[in-house]
Amino acid sequence: MTKICCLGAGYVGGPTCAVIAYKCPDVQVTIVDLNAERIAAWNSDELPIFEPGLDEVVKACRGRNLFFSADVDKGILEADLIFVSVNTPTKKSGVGAGFAADLAYVESATRRIARVATTPKIVIEKSTVPCRTAESMRAILEANSRQNIRFDILSNPEFLAEGTAIADLMNPDRVLIGSLQTPEGFAAQKALADVYAHWVPREKIITMGLWSSELSKLAANALLAQRISSVNALSAICEATGADVDEVAYACGLDSRIGPKFLKASVGFGGSCFQKDILNLVYLSESLHLPEVAEYWKQVVTMNEYQKSRFAELVIRRLFNTITNKHLAVFGFAFKKNTGDTRESPAITLVKHFLQEKAHIHIYDPKVEESQIELDLCNPDVATPEQYKSHVKVYNSPYEAAKDVDAIVVLTEWDEFKTLDYRKVFNSMNKPAFIFDGRLILDTQKLRKIGFQVEVIGRQA
Ligand code: NAI
User: Fold this and answer.
1) What is the ipTM of this complex?
2) Other CB atoms within 10 A of residue 230 CB
3) Cα 367 from Cα 416, distance rounded (Å)
4) Angle formed at CA 361 by CA 357 and CA 366, multiple of 5 degrees
5) Known binding residues
6) Which residues bind NAD(+) (predicted)?
7) Confidence (pLDDT) at 168
8) Is 273 a catalytic site residue?
9) According to the model, what pLDDT value does residue 147 have?
10) Quick one: pLDDT at residue 3?
């Protein structure tokens, strides 16, 4: 029986390896993490992350061929294939601060594998890493391992999107495996391809060199985020000219060379990956002495920040140029629908802007816990604990959140926001009642008929 261990039971390691266990009953999968609390949650009925379909997959194979454990060393010792799926956040200090990926977790995971392993291992980079990280991993493994232990390193970046992780894993557009172009590298590549081939058609399992594989992940995220920033840049032109960004995106998306996906204007992208990976690419370009290339990609992030502040300014302007002491309901705190993840959520930046104007904020999100919202907002970059206590309140119902407020600001595209009883909401609000749709999901005509003042991105009022 093939044995797989995954280091890192996060948004990627958890779902990815759970699906491998689900699809490969002949493979034993153990997911380990340094965070014992997170492991306990994976072993409970309340999984640590919300992802449609995840509960069913975990329930079907947990205890059969899927195990969650805090015993990292045992996981390493027993495995033939080891996924490294640890976090690679943007560095906060030191060389490359604000741009480069912090590889401390990848390095300490690699050192641990070297220290503990007593048999040959295939080590797989699942984390998103800068180009040529595999080379550093190999140097660490070879310098620190016991004698005669062979390590092969593969790059197998993950392309799942949060909110659709299980569907993406069950039916991926492609699985990418990078390896050294040597007989040993090809043999390792085949061992991993054989795992995926349990459910992924062979023609979708693509192989290439390590560096191309590592760079492809950064490139894919940069291109996706660039589409969002492009359509958001167009939304500003639409507002100034009277064009409608939804119509423009529709017309452009019908061109088969462009395609319809990822052309929805919004308050901006969030999530733990897009910004981090673009900044990583910017840093790489600068390190390679390519300042024009760095500047080109940086603009995707600049446009995203611009879109968020533009939206905050719109809210303030329409509310008669002041929101001081006014009450605003924020609908949605997660960075997108169908996830409880708030990392880099546009809502954090928007709430920061509103708090700076001394507005009172009522927050409702169907999947984000109050403790998470507090953690995100009581951050030196956002607000003080005192500001949070006096100006932020979290609600369990959108109707409660919207009571006695001057405006509703929709920041996450949760489906339930489309079907609320907006007459009831309107009746409970201060007048004039404003609604700002930062995701272009609401029926604006219907809302106007009820009496709302409606504002959306990418269209004149
Ligand atoms: P996460 O922060 O949710 O999970 C990482 C986990 O690794 C944490 O639970 C942490 O305790 C654990 N960990 C850190 N060092 C460890 C060690 N030495 N041994 C064992 N466990 C250790 O991060 P997430 O979102 O799962 O991301 C992981 C990687 O996957 C990142 O490089 C990210 O860029 C990449 N990625 C993320 C995607 C996403 O949608 N979140 C999509 C595709 C790739």
Assistant:
1) 0.99
2) 17
3) 12
4) 145
5) 8-13, 33, 38, 86-90, 127-128, 158-162, 217-221, 257, 264-270, 273-276, 335-336, 343, 439
6) 8-13, 33, 38, 86-90, 127-128, 162, 273-276, 343
7) 98
8) yes
9) 85
10) 98
